[in-house]
Amino acid sequence: MLYTALGGLALVLALFTIGAHHKVAAAAAVFLIGALGFATVPPLQKRVLDHAHGAPTLASAVNIGAFNAGNALAAWLGGIAISGGLGYTSPNWVGAALATSALALAFLSSSLEKRAARRTPSPQQAAADTRPPVSVP
Length: 137
Prior knowledge:
Elements: H1 2-19, H2 23-39, H3 41-50, H4 56-86, H5 90-119, H6 123-130
Protein name: MFS transporter
Main location: membrane
GO cellular component, one term: plasma membrane
């Protein structure tokens, strides 16, 4: 779901730049941006909580703080794009770039997690490795 939401968000933001001057296309894009942006929250929150066994409340608070920091960063970068003379639709490209980078980070995170899981022994293997050797009389 996370990959779908982030990929869809990047695509819709990029397409909104083209369709921003058409009422129906703009309305559809604004709806999809909101829906896809909202759809990223549950899978990210679940991912964070799945890895925060010792302090789930703290991890949840930090995750929401990261969302707020991302909103502020995107608004700032979008403002820079507009003030740089790139036009009023340029924040959509900024958003598409940020969503694409988030998608890349999600893939990287998943890849690193899978690599670490391959190196970590299963609980049965770990238990077998810690048993004292059996001496044969």
